[in-house]
UniProtKB/TrEMBL annotation:
Species of the source: Oceanobacillus zhaokaii
Protein name (Swiss-Prot/TrEMBL): Sugar ABC transporter permease
Subcellular location as annotated: Cell membrane
Family listed: Belongs to the binding-protein-dependent transport system permease family.
A single GO BP: transmembrane transport
Length: 270
């Protein structure tokens, strides 16, 4: 009983520490600029300034940023799910020379920090003429070594007898992938989809370097416009951050069950 109480106490403390920055962000988004600069800082605003949310749309093309971010996120997620599942299917269910060596080479990509390949990728995209286009934002993020690894582990846990039965019925490799493997891998696909959506939605460095015009800005870069060299408009910055966070919160609330299931199944499958 005491151990259970101690565990719950630690969980409550941890949850409180995690949620404090989010509450501070919401309260700051409702303050005036002078209140955000007060020393010592105040917790609650003297007057709730809901106009800050409207002022975000008046200050920058926030709706355009939103649409760009949605397009970027959908493009990366849908294509990455398709390509990673195809590669994972090949590594999990097919036999070909050098399979394990190629898989290890793909996993080795996980060891390379993004900053190392940033300049080479920028040079390649410059040669292709893709700078400041959606091609530069989406195409490099269409494949993930982590996604291949995640799905391969899940696919290996699906009984191979299903493949043999489908083959006897005349099903091709792609038919097995499409009709047998994918329907049985829904939790893993949802888990990978959530990870990809979060990474694409919150991506800052890559869009910052690859875009230069206002029309191609995404939310993470557009919100940073409220941060100046000598002063920062914290109320508008926080209001923009709150509005950009809402879709991710809604997604997590509705899909958290599938996310936990998908991750948990990775641990019990070989």
């Amino acid at each position: 009983m005491k151990l259970k109480l101690a565990n719950h106490t630690l969980l409550i403390i941890g949850a409180f520490i995690m949620i404090v920055p989010f509450i501070w962000m919401i309260l700051t988004s409702l303050k005036t600029f002078s209140e955000t600069m007060q020393v010592p800082p105040t917790i609650l605003p003297e007057e709730f300034k809901f106009d800050n949310y409207l002022n975000v749309f008046a200050s920058v093309d926030f709706l355009k940023y939103y649409m760009n971010t949605i397009f970027l996120t959908l493009g990366r997620t849908l294509v990455q799910l398709f390509l990673c599942s195809l590669a994972a299917f090949a590594f999990a269910r097919m036999e070909f020379p050098g399979k394990n060596t190629i898989f290890i080479l793909i996993l080795s990509v996980l060891m390379v920090p993004m900053q190392v390949i940033l300049i080479p990728n920028y040079g390649i995209l410059t040669q292709l003429g893709w700078i400041d286009t959606f091609y530069a934002l989406i195409v490099p993020g269409m494949f993930s070594a982590f996604g291949v690894f995640l799905l391969r582990q899940f696919f290996m846990g699906i009984p191979k007898e299903l493949d043999e039965a489908a083959t006897m019925d005349g099903c091709s490799f792609f038919g097995i992938y499409w009709r047998i493997i994918l329907p049985n891998a829904t939790p893993a696909l949802i888990a990978l989809g959530i990870f990809t959506i979060l990474a694409a939605w919150n991506d800052f460095l890559w869009p910052l370097i690859m875009t230069s015009s206002e029309d191609m800005r995404v939310l993470s870069v557009g919100i940073a416009a409220f941060q100046g060299q000598y002063s920062t408009d914290y109320p508008l910055l926080m209001a923009g951050a709150v509005m950009s966070t809402i879709p991710m919160l809604i997604m997590f609330i509705f899909l958290q069950k599938h996310l936990v299931t998908g991750i948990a199944l990775q641990g019990v499958r070989r």
